[in-house]
Amino acid sequence: MSKQKRYFLTEDDLPTHWYNVQADMPNKPGKMVNPVTKKEMTVDDLSHVFARECCVQELDQEHPWIEIPAEVREMYKSYRCTPLVRAYALEKALGTPAHIYFKNESVNPLGSHKINSALPQCYYCKQEGTTNVTTETGAGQWGAALSYAAKLFGLEAAVFQVKISMQQKPYRSSIMRTFGAVVEGSPSMSTKAGRRILTENPLHPGSLGTAISEAIELATSTSHCKYTLGSVLNHVTLHQTIIGLEAEKQMALAGEYPDIVIGCFGGGSNFGGISMPFLRHNFLDGKKTQFIAAEPESCPKLTRGKFGLDFGDEAGYTPLIPMLSIGHKFKPANIHAGGLRYHGSGAIVAELVRDGFVTAVDIPQLESFEASILFARTEGIIPAPESGHAIAEVIREAQKCKESGEEKVILFNLSGHGLIDMTAYEAYLHGDLQNFKVSEEEIAFNLREN
Ligand SMILES: *Cc1c(COP(=O)(O)O)cnc(C)c1O
To answer: Among 129, 136, 137, 244, which residue has the fewest nearby CB atoms (within 10 Å)?
Structure first.
């Protein structure tokens, strides 16, 4: 065994700053807009809802490097750096000349990349005198990360979980409660937004959009309470760049540089987290790396959405966000990659797709599970169903390399493990899963509803 498989950094080599890609983008991402006044949102406007420091980061288009607070960096050290792994066994199974690497964000005890942003968001809330935090969660990874981070900082957490996910994955709620959070299924009867949604549609399965509405309503109607978000917004992507910044150093240890970087795409945080530090070198050093976001066919905002201003939630409580969207009232199909069922992309990736720096592909559910199973059987890690979309795209690219004989270097982010998603694997192995392609009519209908 002379081939090195895993690459680590020492604590001293952990990045000290996050990378703010907004500063280097040739066309800046659009700003959030107040739906009533149509004016651009300021830090003051946004800080009614979010920790003020997160709002400053959200709107910062000037500073490329933002210092990681010392306390957060110390906490990162309890589970970072995460390994960069060369997937030799997968390469062999595919018979590809491509070199496949993955950054393994599944190895922290929360099981996904979400903790990378939960820690700084709770840190800033605590610093600013907040006592309570609210949030939404789909599959539950963000809710779990936030519940744990809140506990570390002595904050009370209230989590609205998409009702259908809560029913499909009851252990996720138990995890959040174990960390001390209060968890409610959304739509619920405990907010105005929830009651309105249930009045219109008593069987509403819930969506990230409904849960966000409820969490924001609770935050803005409770003193010393702030809302936190696990994806979509620029400051969340900023925190997640710790992934790509480590990967950049680890790829250097491996003596390689990626030709292609791939991430699965829900709202953009893990994709942005692994991609932006490398994209920086396309902007500044003439690198030609390709960046591919892999979204589910059942929720195709990047490949089939419309660019424009849309709400981030069902009820329309958020500012209007410049995004690629299939409509904020979109009710996603009941697919198993719960973390990818969001109707819009963040502003940064929307602009990067428009400008041709990022390409997007949509992946059918069955192809994604097939890819996950191959990955599990070769690399010994059961991927989160979300991550399976990235793996499916990696396999497509590796097969292209096999046909062309090109020895491309492919890097992807393994955003989480699937050990609490075994119901989904069970359904796949029994042949009970289907593909869900959204019809043109449904997308057009949802966009008209806006
Ligand atoms: C939440 C989640 C995603 C999707 O969210 P992004 O913000 O697009 O990264 C992907 N994978 C896992 C494991 C998740 O928990």
So the answer is: 129
Q: Supply 401's token pair.
A: 């390399």
Instruction: State yes or no: pLDDT of 1 exceeds 60.
Output: no
Examine residue 45 and state whether it is found in any structural domain, yes or no.
no
Ligand 1 closest atom vs CA 112: 13
Q: What is the CATH number of the domain that holds 338?
A: 3.40.50.1100
- What is each CA distance from 56 to 114, 116, 309, 376, 411, in whole angstroms? 21, 18, 21, 41, 31
209-257 pLDDT per residue, tens: 899 999 999 999 999 999 999 999 999 999 999 999 999 999 999 999 9
- Strand bridging mode 65-67 / 84-86: unpaired
Cα 265 to ligand 1 centre (Å)? 7
Determine, yes or no, domain membership for 168: no
Q: For residue 277, is the peptide bond before it cis, meaning its omega torsion is within 30 degrees of 0?
A: no
pTM: 0.97
- Compute the distance from residue 249 Cα to the ligand 1 centre, in Å: 23
Give the total number of structural domains in the chain. 1
Which residue lies with its CA nearest to atom 3 of ligand 1? 339
Residue 370 lies in a domain: yes
Residue 20 lies in a domain: no
Task: Decide: 361 in ligand 1 pocket, CB within 6 A.
Answer: no
- Is the CB–ligand 1 distance for residue 415 below 6 Å? yes
253-288 per-position pLDDT tens digit: 999 999 999 999 999 999 999 999 999 999 999 999
